[in-house]
Amino acid sequence: MLKQRLQQKLLQKLSPQQIQMIKLLEVPTLQIEQRIKKELEENPALEEGPEDEEVPSTEEDGEEERVEENDKDNDEFTLDDYIEEDDIPEYRLQANNYSKDDEKRSEIPFAGASSFQEHLESQLALRDLTDKQKILGEYIIGNIDEDGYLRRELASIVDDMAFLQNVTTTEEELEDVLKIIQDLEPAGVGARTLRECLLLQLEKKDHSQPALKLAHSIIRDHFEEFSKRHYDKIIIRLGIAETELKAAIEQVLKLNPKPGGVYSDPFTKISQPIIPDFILELSEDGFDLHLNSRNLPELRLSSAYNEMLRDYSRGKSNKKEMKDAVQFVKQKIDSARWFIDAIKQRQNTLLLTMNAILEYQKEYFIDGDETKLKPMILKDVAEMTDLDISTVSRVANSKYIQTHFGIFPLKFFFSEGLQTDSGEEVSTREIKRILQDCIDNEKKRKPLTDERLTEILQEKGYQIARRTVAKYREQLNIPVARLRREI
After folding, report:
1. Which pLDDT value is given to residue 94?
2. What proportions of the chain, in percent to the nearest 5, are helix, strand and coil?
3. pLDDT of residue 105
């Protein structure tokens, strides 16, 4: 049964300008240039040009009055908002704060090299194989990843060959072809596990050397104990001396756990440089913080579109085509003005947030000593700037600052706090630095356990739990004590 009822709802909707501003705020310097170029291509009412270039005025006072009279007949918008020259922004998006040595360098093109799979296929073509083996071999090579491993099960490949290639085969046939592939270069390619990869490499070495022969035996028969570093068990089971085990381990460490990486061409992968969003310079007068906007073009409203709007407004025709044309021009000018304002607001928000971080961590930015970093969270910066926490988060995300002691992501300066015995609040980054120093200086034959690390920190006045130490150790990508043990 249908019923009618009256209901009130309180909703908050973002305007198109606010959405555009939020999106631009998240974009780092490396991508904002592309975003501006895209807007220049899509919106003809937006153009780039020198800051001191003004929109030419071709209207006389009498003509402007007639424009106003014609505009009064249209209640939808006011033409004065679009033809006033004073509305043209007079700020620049490009700062000439760099030297001639910093000129943009063009990338040198390199000739394309063959892929890792093509390298294997070229070797496979030299082997004496049947037509079916060639098909199976090419399909297996296609399933080898960039590290050189075959991650897919042979049973699954059997099904793939039947459904996709219409080729009937068995796991035994695939195993025979895989052994041929595993004999190709680089050594270890086509392995399905790390243990198999290391064994393939050891089998191609000279086993007349005792250390290599022992290494092969350890990986083949005692890989689990070796991976967990239970060296005492290996010594007892094999009846060897500690020096012999150490020599065998040195041979294993010379092997490549990712054989596919040997063939990767450094020229085929162009590393993405880090472009800092902020540049901080320290002088005798203090800090000088500015945005890195050297590659950003200058933006302004198109003078041609302003003239076009004037021409349309002088016509008294009520034809639909004329109204549509005026509405189109108005829409493009609106979009251009919104974009320019959003860029300007983006600059102000970035500088406001970074200045707050600079003020909060002033002692650290003087010399870059991590021990001077204060505990700081997003809420602290939001309270200093009267911005929302989500806005501060967008500014800190994917943004970098260049200082006189290096380039750092803005997230680097945020950390939680921990109170010492004296009541002083210190950054968790200082705790991590102490942990790193302790582990770097530990005896590798008997590495420090999490319990011992907790005791050391407590002796230094940091009241911290063992589980917290384990969490910080994992964040530093440091394995447990057992896996750090060496002989």
Report:
1. 41
2. 55, 10, 40
3. 42
pLDDT tens, residue by residue, 348-380:
888 899 999 999 888 888 888 877 888 888 888
- Sign of the dihedral defined by the CA atoms of residues 421, 424, 428, 430, in that order: negative
Give the percent of the chain with pLDDT over 70.
77
Q: Are 333 and 301 in contact (CB under 8 A)?
A: yes
Q: Which residues of 18-39 are buried (b: 16+ CB within 10 A; e: fewer)?
A: eebbeebbebebbebbeebeeb
Q: What residues are paired with 282 via a beta bridge?
A: 287
Tokens 């153009």 — which residue? Answer: 47
Q: How far apart are CA 216 and CA 196, in angstroms?
A: 11
Strand order in the sheet with 286-291: 286-291, 278-283, 400-403, 406-409
Domain 415-487 sits in CATH at: 1.10.10.60
Count of CA atoms in the C-beta half-sphere (13 A) of 220: 12
3-class secondary-structure state, position 210: helix
Backbone φ/ψ region at 322: left (φ over 0), alpha (ψ -120 to 50), beta: alpha
Q: Tokens in use for 388?
A: 């929302």
Instruction: Classify 117-184 by CATH class.
Output: mainly alpha
459-469, pLDDT tens digit by residue?
888 888 888 88
Distance CA 204, CA 259 (A): 14
pLDDT band at residue 172, thresholds of 50, 70 and 90?
very high
- How far apart CA 115 and CA 264 sit, in angstroms, is 8
SS3 335: helix
Per the model's pLDDT, the better-predicted residue between 111 and 259 turns out to be 259
Side-chain half-sphere exposure of 21, counting CA atoms within 13 A:
18
